[in-house]
Structure formats: C-alpha cells, structure tokens
Amino acid sequence: WLAQQATHHRLRTNRLSPPFHSSLLLYSSHLPIQAAENSSSSIAISPNTVESRHFSPLSRSHQAKGFPGTSCSHRAASPALRNLIFPSSLCFQMASSVISAAASASPSACPVTDLLKGKAKLGSGNVGSLFIKDKGNPFLNSKSCGRITMAVAVNVSRFEAITMAPPDPILGVSEAFKADNDEKKLNLGVGAYRTEELQPYVLDVVKKAENLMLERGENKEYLPIEGLAAFNKATAELLFGADSPVISEQRVATIQGLSGTGSLRLAAVLIERYFPGAKVLISSPTWGNHKNIFNDARVPWSEYRYYDPKTVGLDFEGMIEDIKAAPEGSFVLLHGCAHNPTGIDPTPEQWEKIADVIQEKNHIPFFDVAYQGFASGSLDQDAASVRLFAARGMEIFVAQSYSKNLGLYSERIGAINVVCSSSDTAARVKSQLKRIARPMYSNPPIHGARIVANVVGDPALFGEWKAEMEMMAGRIKGVRQKLYDSLTSKDKSGKDWSFILKQIGMFSFTGLNKIQSDNMTNKWHVYMTKDGRISLAGLNLAKCEYLADAIIDSYHNVS
Amino acid sequence: MWRLQLIRKPWRCFSTSAGVRRWFDSVGPAAKDPLQAVTEAFNSDPFPQKINLGLGAYRDEQGKPLVLQCVQQAEEKIRGCNLLDSVSAPVASATLVEECVKLVYGRSVNVVKEKRFAGVPALSGTGACRLFAEFQRNFFPESAIYLPDPTWTNHHNIWANAHVPVRTFHYYHPHLRGLDFAALIDDVKNAPDGSFFLLHPCAHNPTGIDPTEDQWSEISNLFKMKNHFPFFDMAYQGLATGDVDKDASSIRIFLEDGHLIGCAQSFTKTMGLFGHRTGCLSLLCADRDQAVRVKSQLQRIAGAIYGSPPVHGIVLLSTILGDQALKSIWFKEVKAMASRIQSMRAKLRERLELTGSSLNWEHITKQVGMFWFPGLTPEQVDRLAKEFHVYMTPDGRMSMAGVTTSNVRYLANAVHEVTKCR
C-alpha cells in the first residue's frame, strides 16, 4: 500500500522521502488502536510515539516533510493546540470520526471541500476512505486533494468559534426602512444631513475645493504622521479661535485623525498609556460608539446622569453629583454642542458650573465636537463651551469631526487636540500621539484634509461654507419649528412639546419609550431608534404634520 | 431656570499659574520615527547632490514622485460623482475587496469563486496589519506573532500596540547576504504548533531577499505539519518582478496546499496611492457563513478604531481594478516601475564594480524589489549621510526607487568610499 501511495500520490516535485513512509506507517498503525478505545469526547493519544519519530532530524535538503496531517491530529489532545485550531468538540468529532472511519473502511470518494461544507457527515465513514488503500481513493488520484485531505484535521479553519458581531442598531433601522414599501415611510434613523428633498447633500464649497485640487494636480504622497500641516493649523484655529492664547502660546498638540472616531481612539490610547487606571465618565445616554472605543482601548468608563425622561431635558443635578462623586483625575467626556442622541445641551450658566466641578475634582475635560457650526449655524457659538474651559487655563482633550459640518462623512477627517500647560508639553504630547498613530495606520488619508484646508484657507470659500452651515442648521431649526407647531395645534392634551425647540442639532429625544417607538414604526412607518431618538435631518417640512400625528398617537394611545 | 452667580474666582483667568493641574508633566518626548527623522535630515541638508534613499516611495527618472496614468484617469472618471449616496461607498468597498482578492489569490481559485473569504478595505498595509493584530488579540488571546528578522520596523510596533507578544524567526544571513533557510526552517519547526507567522510574499522589506519557489513549497509543507497560520503582508505585488501573478506565486503555493491564509494588501507603492490609505485585509474561511461572521468581527474592530475607511481611496482603487482598461494600464505602469528599478540595480552594480572595489556586489541584482540591503554598519550609514549626503534608514536599507541615471555614479562612489577600508 505504501508503495502504491508513493507512486500514485502526485505531490509537488521530489516530495517523497523516508519520513513520509514511516510516518504514514505510524499513523495507520495507530488507527486500529484508537478506534477501539475511542469514545466521543476524549482521545488518549500519546503524542510521544508519533511525534518523536516524525520530527526526527529532517534533512536540510529539500525533501518532503512527510505526512502533513499526522502530527496535528495526534496532537489534538494537546490543550493549547485545541484552542488554537478549533473548539474541542469539533476537534474531537473530526479526529474521532477520522479514526473510527478508518477502521470501518468504506470506499467512497469524499473531497475535503465537501467535508468542510458539511456535506460529508462526520463519522459516516466517508472520510475514512482517505486513509485506506483503495484505488478509488481520491487521495491517490489527485494532487491537491491529496495534500488537503491528508491534512483534513489540520485545515479546518481556526475561525470556527467566531460568532457574528452584534448588528449595528442604526444600520438595522436603515435596512428595515429600505425593505418597507409603504409610500408614507419616513427614515428618522439616519445620522447624516438630508436636504428638503431628503437627499444626501454635497456642499458646494466641497465641490469647488475638489475641482481646485484636481486642477492643481497635486500628488498623492504620504502625509506626515501628524497629518496635513495646513489642516492642523486651520482646525485648531476654528475650534479655539484664531486669537486664542492657547494658539498663540502654542499650547495645543493637534494631530489629524480619522474623523471623530479615529481622533477619540488616539486620545483613548494616550489615556490608557499615560493615565493608567483613570476612568472616562460618559453621559447616559451617549453616542453608541463611545463605549466601543474605550472598551477596545481598554480604558475603563462609567456613566454620569444626563437625560431626564420626566422633563425630556437635562438632569443637571444628577450630572453634577455624578461628576463630583467620581475619583479625582477622571476624564469627563462632554459633547461640545448638539448632544448625541438627546439634542439637549447645558446652558452657558450650566457649563460654568460643570467647569467649576471639574476643576474642583481635578478632572480632565474631554470634549467630543462633532457638530461645530452645524448646531446653531455659527462656528463660534458652537465652540463656546470648549472656549470657556480653555479660557480657564485648563488642560483639555478635544476630538473634532468634519463629517457633518462639511458633509465629509466618508472621507474621515477630524482631529485630536490636547491643550497643555506649556508649549513644551504640547510638543511632547504631540510626539506621543504620533507614536500612537504610526502603528495604527502610519499616516492619515489626504483627501478630506486637503478639502478642509482649501475651504478654510480661501476667504471666499470660507464665507460660502459659513453660509451653507447656516442653511443646514436653518433647515433643521425650520423643521423643529414646524414639528412643534404641528404638535401643539394637533395635541389637545396640553402636553408641553417645547423641548423640541429647546433641543438642538440633528437629533431629538422625543421622550417616547421603546413600545411607543415600535408603534411609530409598525403603525406609522416612521423609522427611528428604540431609545426614542429621531433625526431631524431625515425630516422635511412636508412630513411634519404626518410625524406629529404619529407622535401624538404613540404618546397617548400606546404605553 | 438656573440662576447662578458668576463669581470671579482667581483660577478662572487663563494664565497657567498654580491652581491649574498640570497633567502631562510625565509625558516624555517620543523617539522620532526613524523614517521621518531621515526625511527631516534630508530636507534640511543644503548639499545640491544630496540623495534621499530612505522612503520606500517610487520616484521617476527625474527623482520626482509619480502620479500614475491609471490613477489620473480614475480621478477624472469619478470627478463630480456623488460619493455620499448610500449606495456608492458600500458598492465600491465590495468591488474593492473582490478585486483585491482576485488579484492576490488568482481569479479562478475556488476560494475566490465560492466567496470563502472575509475581506474589508483597510488603511493601507499598516491598517490591514493592525486590524489583523487586533483580531488576533480578540480571538486568539494566547497567541504570539512571529516576525522575520529583520522586517519592516513598523511590524513590531503594530503587534505590540495591539498587545500581541512578538517573537522573531531567522531570515537574513548576514554573511551570505541571503536567506538563512536552515535557521528559518528550524525556527518554524520549533515554534509551538498553531503559531501565527508573518511572511513577506515577495520583495522582502528591508532585505530584498525572497525564498525560491522550492523553498516556499517546503515552508508551506512545514506550516501544514505544524498547523501554523500564514499571514502575508503583500505590499509590492507587481513591483518585484513586474508581473503581478509571479509576485503572488508564494501565496498561490500556500493556497494550493490548502492553507487558509490571511493577507494584508497595500497599494500605496504599487499604485502610488500613498496619501489615500487604501488597502485590503482578507482572511480565508472554511465556508461562506464563517466568512460572513469573521467579516462582521473585522468591521466591528475597525468601527472602534476609525469608523469606516476613507471613501476617496476606496473609489479610486475599485475604479482602477474594476475597469479592464484601467487595470491594463496599471499593469503596464507597474511593470515599467519595476523595470526601472531593476535597471538601476544593474547600473549600480556595474558602477560599483567599476570603482575597483574588491567586494562582491552580486547581491544588488539578486535582491528583489524596492530595497537594497547591503549590510552596512551604523558607522558606514552615518558616514554616507554626513560626508556624502546620502540618506537611508539606520539599518542601511536603501530605496532603489530613489536612484536615477544621474545620481547612480555618485552613489556608487560614495558607497565604495565608505566600504573600501573593510
């Protein structure tokens, strides 16, 4: 049989050698013993005999290393390997079936791909034919099949145990919306700006900037690790104000990041490295991805109270209490403006008090600014909270994103800024941020950075951008007003809907609970997230009345 | 209504005097990234004949960066396209992954036809490797990664930052200036079964030394016996020999042998898309269902690092690879780049031999790809920079892409000068 194997088995050139023969012999000689003893859950295989002979000094010349499958299937008993290759149950199933099948010797062709696809039943005896002398044995006839089939126990993917990642809740909303055929349907799950016609909007200034860039024919060389210098300068000035002391004193370490997410992640790694054990306090609720970012960066977090369902407003006392109660030196994650998902922002006076408490407790403020200019329409107004803290001389982290205010969602352009006590410190912090970015992606993508730099750097384009932001923010304010008007005129219960007007930005917490939100979807074909959040970006004036009807119905008639 | 008294407290002024906590005093300055340090030193050097051989970026005969024809045409094609609609980005991503997978594994292999791969666009090679490293840490928390010695320096950083322990295996034989195959095989054998190995499929960075086809077959064989996981970092497909299929032959050997491999692909150098950060990470799976699950996990991990990958590069790359005409143009252009590099290798070797140097310069034309690894000492590297204004990475790796017919003679003389007293 071995001689047959040797001649018929067509491996790549000159593969056969004594080790191959002896190991095959060993393997086959073990089989009857194993089959007899074998029970489903454990295979007592003595690794010694097979391995030591198998791994006897192999010559350094180019000879075949023998029977690929042997060592591993026999070593399947070793726990380390078991964990690495595939879960024990599968491992043992595979190995035991191979072995028992070998004993039963039923000749039939069984390519390994069938096995992996589950077409071949384990233990059915099909697999066993691979190891039995038989002219019909596919192992003998085909080159690649042979190599694979011999290693069947080896080559089952080690990803067997990997489960599906939890679905993105917001994506789920969009998909359900797409599948709905009702013409009245409304997608209020979308976190991206839509026009009155409910279409995605590419800002005019972006088109102009891109044309400029194309005409200039700029090369596509690597950016430095910290990103485009012109962008970094522009973004810090936009945020803090060009005449801010933090800028003139060079106390800000700014590096370009991949939108808000990427910038937050850089900061998270810095925190984990230089503030080991420090916690990040995040609002309850907050943007879903915040938790993922800190979890993956191994930064512990806890929540501070934020949303008060009774008032559909800010639980300010709870917020202050929780920030006070946190261990000194915690990071407090704050939304600079247009809180996501509630749309509820502190008032200027409340911001002062928050800053007081943070200073008292020696916490570090960490702003996530994703909507500067998009919330109120004014870049300066939307940066007021950050500037308030900077004016107090505090050391601050600020992550920025240009996804919404410049509509550059998929270009992934943002920045992480760290305000430090001195320019020297800022230089050091910047160097460490670069050190974090290099093994993450080496250097950031160029396109979005160039767009921002071009728009901000050209006075005409900059002016046009401000106008477009005002337009976008204006449209959102417009639909808020219309929605509020529709609600107050249609709802006779006297409920106060003014929170719609007090909230700001793309999102609004309606105060509807999960069941009520489901009713919105099931009865009214209004798609939103289960926490009661609606995206005003997905609403237009024409649909406000319909939405008002849906909200009133869900609020009053469903509980 | 909140009515707060706005009391002016002393520590509200913006001076950074006492009372303001200074958090970052313990943050030391990071060591400069060696490559960036080289570039900076080069940029500040006023010497007119200076040569920058540090960065592995292609330069044309005039020493200028090249925007490829296929890229320019693709830019024109997508000009004015609305990349924001919900359809284009996902479609472009799917096209990109499919085309990348076909390019590296071959279009007719079963695993491609049956879609038994989990593939996502990645932030170039670095991003793809990092994504895999994070995936490895998440799902194989006890595992380590074996890197060749030497390798691209950032490989070490990537896996270390992902908190995956790093080990090395022998690769470069300093005396032979070739592959230390025996030691490599030994290390592969001695590694615990089921270890994760990073392999350069062609144009090894920094040595330019690749295993022969027979040697690859043997490595593949041994990997099967040891059940090791082969992870390929493909950064130079097309730039090594000029032929994209030939450059992928090592991967195809592993595929034929039935390995379920992982592959990081970068197009920064082969397509000149440096600033766009486009690449792909693919993992071969047992079946389609598994591929869907694994992909979902890769996307989840990426979601917490940067959300989604930048669309411009994705659309560019998918446009080029997805369009037969553009792709053919690319094949020609990458072949031309490879040829120029090969001719520079030949010229450099010729020039060095003409200097009357007693040393053997054969390895210049034997090494493959963008880099020349002459095995210089740190002192020699330093002299080349300080005395001759020739810049390279501290390990003595020189990018042949920076060599032109106008500077090759100067370079040869400089190298001869620092090596002749050996």
Automatic annotation (TrEMBL), chain A:
Is Transferase given among the entry's keywords? yes
Q: Name one Pfam family in it.
A: Aminotran_1_2
Please identify the protein, giving its name as recorded. aspartate transaminase
Query: What reaction(s) does this enzyme catalyze?
Result: L-aspartate + 2-oxoglutarate = oxaloacetate + L-glutamate
> From the Swiss-Prot or TrEMBL record, what is one GO molecular function term?
pyridoxal phosphate binding
Similarity annotation: Belongs to the class-I pyridoxal-phosphate-dependent aminotransferase family.
Q: What is its EC number?
A: 2.6.1.1
Boundaries of every Aminotransferase class I/classII large domain copy: 184-551
Organism of origin: Linum tenue
What job does the chain carry out? Answer: Important for the metabolism of amino acids and Krebs-cycle related organic acids. In plants, it is involved in nitrogen metabolism and in aspects of carbon and energy metabolism.
Its required cofactor(s), as named, are: pyridoxal 5'-phosphate
The top EC class is transferase
| UniProt keyword list | Aminotransferase, Pyridoxal phosphate, Transferase
SUPFAM superfamilies the UniProt entry points to: PLP-dependent transferases
Q: Which InterPro entries match?
A: Aminotransferase_I/II_large (IPR004839), Asp_trans (IPR000796), PyrdxlP-dep_Trfase (IPR015424), PyrdxlP-dep_Trfase_major (IPR015421), PyrdxlP-dep_Trfase_small (IPR015422)
Domain of life per record: Eukaryota
- GO BP term, pick one: amino acid metabolic process
Oligomer and partners: Homodimer.
Which Gene3D superfamilies does the protein's record reference?
A: Aspartate Aminotransferase, domain 1, Type I PLP-dependent aspartate aminotransferase-like (Major domain)
From TrEMBL, chain B:
Q: Name one GO biological process term.
A: amino acid metabolic process
Q: Which cofactor does it need?
A: pyridoxal 5'-phosphate
Which Gene Ontology CC terms are recorded? mitochondrion
Keywords assigned by UniProt, alphabetized: Aminotransferase, Pyridoxal phosphate, Transferase
- For this protein, what reaction is catalysed? L-aspartate + 2-oxoglutarate = oxaloacetate + L-glutamate
InterPro entries registered for this protein in UniProt = Aminotransferase_I/II_large (IPR004839), Asp_trans (IPR000796), PyrdxlP-dep_Trfase (IPR015424), PyrdxlP-dep_Trfase_major (IPR015421), PyrdxlP-dep_Trfase_small (IPR015422)
Q: Which residues form a coiled coil?
A: none
**Occurrences of domain Aminotransferase class I/classII large (ranges):** 49-414
This protein's name: aspartate transaminase
